[in-house]
Amino acid sequence: PAVRKPLIAGNWKMNLNHLEGIALVQKIAFTLPEKYYAHVEVAVIPPFTDLRSVQTLLDGDKLSLVLGAQDLSPKDSGAFTGDISGSMLAKLGVHYVLIGHSERREIHGESDALLAQKVAAAYRHGLTPLLCVGEGLEVREAGNQVQHSVDQLLAALADVTPEQAASLVLAYEPVWAIGTGRVATPADAQEVCSALRAALAERFGSEIAGATRILYGGSVKSGNVSEIVDQDDVDGALVGGAALDATEFATLAANA
Ligand code: PEP
């Protein structure tokens, strides 16, 4: 996919305090020389408490790594104890924000309607949603992975305009492949990613759909990333476990 620059995004989940996060980013920067960023965009997605420290490091050293956050509130401010707003994230130089990661959908019961509000909140504050969709094992075994993932996509994008959709990033993450070591085959990834692109084309037109990056996520490692991103409709990877080791993550990005 020559027009779409691959994106490798490392989701740290609830791992690494701010000192460990700084150490990881420094190591990634040493291991992945600047010349690579012409070919691949690389993002780190630390916990909220690390964002300021990582941002200071990225800014101070003029590093090309892009900063993301793992979630945001659908609200802008107010009596929402424990929540973090899009404007707070934007102030910290955050570019991407994960929305609808399966761990948020499952553990926190986040609904499609809530995710649509989070997508709107991200756009209100100039953040780029990295919207995650994907089926669980039962849906996969029933053969309904395409319909399920497309339904999640269209529900979360219910209120999105074409202008907004132009900057969207998607991630197809089959739940049975996340953190399990059970990676989808390249053909599995391509099947759903191409269906997501077709759904985007129907909703927003083929130009926007053709320019949208669709990532695969689920047990991606340095050793399997290239065959996955070789697929026509797969434009990078959302990486969990392998994002916590600098050498592994930098090698993964270099192999994308
Ligand atoms: C993820 O959390 O988005 C993910 C893909 O995790 P892992 O790479 O560990 O499967």
Automatic annotation (TrEMBL):
A GO cellular component entry from the record: cytosol
NCBIfam families hit by this protein: tim
An annotated GO BP: gluconeogenesis
InterPro entries: Aldolase_TIM (IPR013785), TIM_sf (IPR035990), TrioseP_Isoase_bac/euk (IPR022896), Triosephosphate_isomerase (IPR000652), Triosephosphate_isomerase_AS (IPR020861)
Annotated protein name in UniProt: Triosephosphate isomerase
Species of origin: Nakamurella flavida
Subunit details: Homodimer.
Organism taxonomic ancestry: Bacteria, Bacillati, Actinomycetota, Actinomycetes, Nakamurellales
Gene Ontology MF: a single term: triose-phosphate isomerase activity
